[in-house]
Amino acid sequence: MTDVPPADDADARAPEDEAPLPDSPDAPGAPSGPGVPDGPGAPGALGAPGASGVPDRPGASGPSGVPDGPGAPGAPEGGGERAGAAGGRPFAHRPVLRDAVVELFEPVPPGIVVDATVGGGGHAEALLDAHPHLGVVGLDQDPDALAAAGVRLARFGDRVTLVRTRFDRFATVLDDLGHEGASGALFDLGVSSPQLDRPERGFSFRGEGPLDMRMDPSRPMSAADLVNGADERELAALLRGLGDERHAGRIARAIVAARPLTTTTQLAEVVRDAVPAPARRRGGHPARRTFQALRIAVNEELAILPATIDDAIDELVAGGRCLVLAYHSGEDRIVKDRFRHAATGGWTGPSHLPVPPGVTPTVRLLRPGAIKPSAAEIAENPRAEAARLRAVEKLPLQEVA
Ligand SMILES: C[S@@+](CC[C@H](N)C(=O)[O-])C[C@H]1O[C@@H](n2cnc3c(N)ncnc32)[C@H](O)[C@@H]1O
Q1: Cβ of 324 less than 6 Å from ligand 1
Q2: Spatial contact of 135 and 118, defined as CB atoms under 8 Å apart
């Protein structure tokens, strides 16, 4: 396996629709020594017409590849950025740090990798092409993404199972499909390019669309509900906490005064007018952080992440690996925290002291820091720039003593 250089954690320039948050110091190395909360669930069967995959209910279908697919053989383009066309439009998303992801899964034991954010199937396709000893269980809550993955991955037949669900049902899905553990878990967090680029999804301030932002369109709360329903104090706290928005108070006040707001461009204008003039000229679009904060809140992105990472680690077989790609420091802090917790068995004492008996690490960190995209990758795909990839490997049982 080619070695992937570690990267430090300096904050990166954000991709166009994503605001970087101030980063925390990197996790210290794990001290040496010994060492499923179910979410609200997902809608039952795949909702999108022509979507491929396995409905997320027990017994609906075994791990039998890509049943009910749209029939098209798909047009995978050699690891490029285009997946199958859902709804007639190509699903254009470049898998970030694809080669590093593929390399990090090379040594895992034969079995399945759960791609918990399969999106258009870019990472999954690269993994399946490179590693004949692996199958993929792909999860996504977005029916459009899952439909695209179904087309792209159809050629792998029964090596692939797709399930429409939120990833907090990670353990339940494995159980339902009859898998006793996983050889890998992959989380490529956040939004896909098509989610950002399709104005009707309402994720981006760039195009006119409804204030929606739901990755799973069947969930009850949209961005409009939040923007028009929360009080000023709640809105300000949300913008500060999830968007690190310095002008949260002013923006919240302006939003409340301008309500009801129904479109992305209306909201973007209100935010732009609310921030002081000098701030409008710095650091990208003034509405970036507001949109990020709303998207994270609408999709409960941070709320379900810590327990899901713990579940994924629990499900790994010995030698199995969990990889997480985070795109802002709120996510990355959670990843570091859960990985550190697993690598230390929860021991928070000074690393120079012996680890007390009974403290049992369940994983080892594969890199001291995060892996970052190269300058060449960023030049090709600016949205990759904020990415931080972290990885752990499950320890053999005998070391968990
Ligand atoms: C960055 S994209 C993944 C792209 C994918 N790795 C590829 O190469 O095509 C993130 C995907 O994760 C999905 N997603 C985000 N949070 C999720 C969650 N909690 N449960 C299930 N899917 C989620 C989004 O709908 C989106 O399709």
Answers
A1: no
A2: no
